[in-house]
From TrEMBL:
GO terms for molecular function: endopeptidase inhibitor activity. Keywords: Signal. It holds the Pfam family Inh. This is Peptidase. Residues 46-138, 152-244 form the Alkaline proteinase inhibitor/ Outer membrane lipoprotein Omp19 domain.
Amino acid sequence: MMAAPVFPDKVDGGASVLLKRRAVLVAAAMLMSCGPALSQDSSALKKNMIGQWELSTTERSRTCVVTLKGETVPQGLKLDLEPGCAASLPFTKDIAAWTVAGLDIVRLQTATGEPVIDFTEVESGILEGRRENDGIYILQNLAEARSLARSMDQMIGDWAFVRSNGQPICGITLTNTEVPPDSFQAFLKPKCDPAIAGFKPKVWRLDHGEILLMSAGGETWHFQADDNAQWRLVPDSTNPLILIRQ
């Protein structure tokens, strides 16, 4: 076992996502005691959701553009799916309408009103939903999602691990070769620091503004961008581990 400043606690990406969602639902339950507030919040959410959204897997390896509209249809509100959605995300073939359920659930549903997937907001402009025995999906403002795609492209290539003295202690290459579900291959370069070589990250992805590096054993390192355009391992330490672009 390596020292704590080098290895963060194990963090399961799915568990973290579910905890965020649970927190949102708890907050919603606290607000539901006020009937008028529920109505006002639902109306505001419906208004805010009108527009173009990207429905995708967590790392955008499969995407679909959904246009939510304000017109009423027999089972909710009107929406349009771009051609090719069913090929990219097969479950979307069942989606015929959308609505807001309860306080803060954006529901994509069938022509008979059955839910296909429910979304709740986890960050401003980002909603998250889970399909049982399928996985987690993201609904994000289309313009912001495309901005994220450009950010993703900027991650591809060679990086170096450095300590606070700026001395490289290992190199890593982040690729765009997909490793299902929703991750990409990463390759360490020779002559790495033992702490990093022992962790041996195999895959990577971007998740809610973090670079995640994951080992074959299921451990995850989280790197967050700092004010110097570098990515620092969190939780931070007095001798931080930093990722910099080569």
